[in-house]
Design brief:
By secondary structure, this protein is an alpha/beta fold. The chain is built from 57 helices and 27 strands. The strands form 5 sheets. Strands 1, 2, 3, 4, 5, 6, 7, 8, 9, 13, 14 and 17 form a 12-stranded mixed β-sheet that branches. Helix 6 links the parallel strand 13 and strand 14. The longest helix has 35 residues. The chain is globular and about 115 Å long. It starts with a strand and ends in a 6-residue tail after the last helix.
Length: 1419
Amino acid sequence: MSFRLRLGEIISSAVHEAPVINPKGNSSQWDVEAKTNSKCTQITLKDPFGQSTELGEDPEKALKWFLENYASEPFETARADLAIDFLSNYGRDLAAQVVKTGLLPKNGSIRLEIASKDSGMGTDPNCVEATLQRLHWEVLEDTKLWPSGYDFNSVSVIRSVLQNSEQDEIGAGSFQGKKFNILLVVSRPGKQKDVDYQLVSRSLVAIVDHVSKTRPAVKVSLTILRPPTWVAFQKELQDHSYDLVHFDMKGRIRKASTGHTSAGLEFCKPNHLDSLKMTKDFRTGSEIGKELAQGGVKTAILNACDSASFEASSPENNLAEVLLRYGTQHVLAMAYKVVEEAVEIFMNAFYQSLLINKASVEEASRIARLALINNRRRRAMSMYNVNLSDYIVPIFYTTFTIPNSHSKVENGKYGSSISSYLDKALSSIKNLSPFEQLISKALQSVDQALIGRDIDVLSLEFLLSTSRLVLLHGQGGCGKTEFLRYVCQWWKASGWINGSAYIDFAEDHLLSWGEYVEQMCIQLGLDFDEPSEAAIIDRVRSGKYLLVFDSADAFESPLYLENPDDAEEMARSLRALIDNATNDGSMAIVASRLANTQVANVTSERQKFHLSGLSVLDSVVLLQQLAFDEKTKPPETYHRRDNIDFLRRVAILLEGNPTAIQLIVPAFSRAGYNGEALFNNILYDKIEEPAEDMWSRSRFCTSLSIALALPSFINFDDTMIQATHFAPFWNIMPKDLNYYYWFFYLFASKYFQEASYANWISKEWQDIVNSCQMARNLRAYWPEIESKLIRVGILQHAAITRSDGQQVPCYHVNPVYTLLSRTAVNKGAWKEAKFAYIRQALLWTPSKPFADDSDRNEWTGVVWDGIEQHEDLLHNRHAQGMGWANQDGDPEEQVKRMGVTLFSLHYSASVGSWWTKPRQRRLLIPHIRQHLSYVHMIANERPASVPTKWDLFCIMDYSWALYQIEAEDTVQSGKAPIVKSALEVFDRWKANSPPGTVLPPPNEVTWFQLRFAEASIMDRSLQLREAKELFERNLADDPVTTNAGMLNIIRRWHLQNLQNWAACVVRLAVRDGKVAKKDFNAGMQAMSNLWKPKGLGPALSEIWTQYEQEIESLKTGDHLGFALDLEKEAVSKFGSFAKSIIGAPMMSVFADLKPENGTSVVKVVSQMLESNNTDSREMKALLGDMESGIHMMAGDTAAAGRAMNFSMQREAPSSTTSTGWENLAEVHMFQYGLAMMPPDKPDYKKGLAHLQEWWKLHQGISMWKQDQVWGLLKLTTCYHGLGRIAEAGREVIKCVEVGQGMGPKDCMDGNVEAAHRHIYNEVVKLRHFDVFLDPTVLFSRAPGIAGLSLKERVALCQIVKEAHEVKKKEEELKELLEEMRKQFAPLGLGSLGLQQDDQRGLESERTTGESMADNSWFF
């Protein structure tokens, strides 16, 4: 028997007094009456999250992220650990408060009822009130959180809301009779943004089917509302009676124009402009509650997110309570958005208990939560699993009436039934599992192929509700056949249709019409002896049936049509049959690769349904499921962020085509499940020929095998064109193939004359190409060939959008074709095809190389099927071109012939493009590195290693490109040697050139950029004095060029030099004591306060708009005045070019960038900050990082964290916009800095979690030893701060081992001794390590060190002892130096007169320490 305890808010019959709410609105307390069957007492309960104002991150927000987003961002273990701590501490605090009632037994089963007054009774609808229900009571069901001495078998939480009624208290409601009617309302107007449409319905259908088969006497009726519109819902409740309504739909809280907020659900309604789109139809809880009341519904299930939310505590914001207020007796709702696997576990357990075991709704909800408690492991992205405490999400509400003042809480029959049921359930809960085998085997067989298709099922249902005839079309291999077979079975199983007939016209070849009629009759259950069209029509008119005609493109395809006349006659018969069959309630679907058909009268675009490829994330999930199983586990490196990013690139390249994904699985395995290797294999090379069964397993593969092998498909003898010739093209192909075929056959010609790029784009050359035999063949035969390729599904019409707005027609190439055609190409033909592709890709949008106006021809988008495709599909062509150009020909010969290499032409069109974003540029890094290495080798092999001008141009340009693309720019990164080598090559060239030789203007710009890069690397490495000197060197040099355009660019880089130089000056002044740190901090605080209310971007936009003229006239010297005054001598050595910038308005540097309409640069930037295009998002991310740095230096860690949100979203593991794992690591390092920043109370646990993520991202990547030491020292500090001495000790041992292996190249300035001293100085700071100064620690059993082996203890004793000795020697040396200064001061030798080098040494040591200890690299 359960012990019942009711906790209820003390309700005054007079004026209701609201709970205590602190000024921040985040803390409440309540006077509560605690009552059992025999005792009653009063206590004051407080919100555990409101007890401390020093929690740092908002615990409610942290908990929300943990429950809703952790599964999609499984790498974020730091945030998850923090949320778990919050929740555990919350539960312990709340349990301790309940225990203080003194009414609870020490063991047994507890039924805890949380009773409160209906927040809507007698209150203003706009009032904000925190009720007792806002607490996370369900956390108490975890019995491990109760205080020591309380050992409960189970704790059951039920929430009850008081209603003004004289009725008896309502029971928990159960399925005890022989009839139970359920209405399931599934709505997904948000499409891909919502959870799977069949998440609940499949399980519920299976359970109801099981009940009907195993208990025929028990009648459980399930109706799925189709379509899920508000009107259909109202009509369904008017026409039928239901015991339970399950709302599987999105919930949200809407704010009206009056300011009043209300919770509700999103139904669907038709979009009159697009029949494929469902529009959101928001209905308030009041509207829904009234309909349920009128329909007599007593129980409602809401797996809608936020349906039991208390985020905004007004009476209308908790949907569950609103429904109770209108008469619904029992409501099961969700406090947060729930992850899909949790829904599966919970709803399976709930409905099994309710329908099979005949439990009450309360009992079933408790058992379902128990299932979540006992199974917290959830599937996450990238084949991860995470543990979630989402048992607190489902909340069960019931109503109770105002009790008589003399009544008691009885532990009677009702309580006994719950207790007995729970006792039984506790012993069997581990065996409670989803009914995975209850749906037919046919349904299960296609589950894998239907990954990501859930919303398409709903969308097709919705379209069929408005049009009984639908043409479903999609590219070959996208899974149309499996999808249609599935929906036939699903709709029959879920009761939407009585039956179906499925005809596939391309399973072998077209049969006779009579044979197809016979097949339909059999599938519809008609008498086999009398198959006829009339019988089919009679059957489909007798109920709701579905006719599916797949592969209708067979009527168009040259591969399947043996007798076109027979096909035309059959098409007429089909049209007539479909028209007659769909006159009443039955439906028909015609499926084709083409967006038109002759077998059905599809007269409107509103009758067409496009089945696209899978989403990027779903594609990766499918690849994972195909590649891994219980026997084949992914390697550890598979989960690396960069590996996942490359797998997403693969998914984009394959357009989410399931057949293409299946084809690459063997290649994925051979690549060791390395995403980059797989991507490179399929983009640049050929996969191995697929197994024979693959050609027949997929209908589209079969079609392609015929097209690629059948000589009659394209007559090569006449056309000189083969179906395999287009194998190099991924995704897009030009309409004009003249150049492609010119070069294709030129490669093998004995009259080979390639000429130059300048020739290629000339009118004369175009005339030659257009008059050749191959061009004549294309004009004569291509229209027919194009028609065949389109009808088979190889090609499709598409259009490219240029930056000037013009549309360039092109073809879309099916990715399955590209994969398979490459396997069919022999080695020689493959070389010819690549040779032609490299040149064709350049001539697709021909322009003069490096032309100033070339950006007007840039491609910004590509569309087919009316859908804007991923931008990667545009940019991959340059990656292909650069990769193959590195393998093609002789670059030196190309320079002699063309004045430029093919690689450089592709490079200028990609890296040099405004439209190529960082994500695309990162793909080019290996190619640029490879070519740069080649050019360096050529230059070194020249006489005296003096490069030619072309060598110099390439080395400087490619080096600058790598500096921009690579993520890190510190002295230990790969950038430093690249920049250094480029400048050394320039110095060699300059030293061996005649006097007066100058660089061409573009190269001079690059030289200034590289020198800026050299100084910036020092700056980012915290070598401030060296960086300052390099910036001063840059500013002392004036440009030689007189080219106005190049001068404008150099002027902007000089401004950047000035700004970075000024930052170094200020930081050095603060460090050296020239500027009081308090004054600096005050300045940072003022800036932080200025940006904090709105953020840096909006604040700048507002200020720049308001003070446009003042900002336009602000001089650079005024802006940097503080630094200029500090370093007047250095400024005097600046060149005239830099001085002219100082004396001019800062915005004049950007004058040439003004739009043609005369809009000021200030206004342009302001408008960009307010917009949401790609460029503005990049700027906002940069500003967000800058703002974070300002807030961090001002000491406001909360504001710094908020400002990083944009970068966090961009780099989050669930994002497909990541700019690289290095930037994700940097975000973690910044978060570590925020956690550790408060000197009085660093958050070691949070810091450790972020540091571990940073370390994990660097695993398998070569790290500079100084960075390794830095990371190990920080890990040591965190473990030490948490009191985990053994782990801290192990990290120190590793750190010293790495330090002992350091050489001059492994540390800052080559000062190994300074690095060693820094390690020991950090160890001395860790006071818990002092225990190792006592030799008896070797044999100690103290808890903190018990886990250390004897060897580890000995090592730590030696390390700690040596650390203290080093520290002691340093202090003695400092005392000696101070004494010497005092002695020499009277002689005018205050600095000993000889210590300049020593002073530099001390600064070097200090810089080494800062670079290892200071992570403020953002400044």
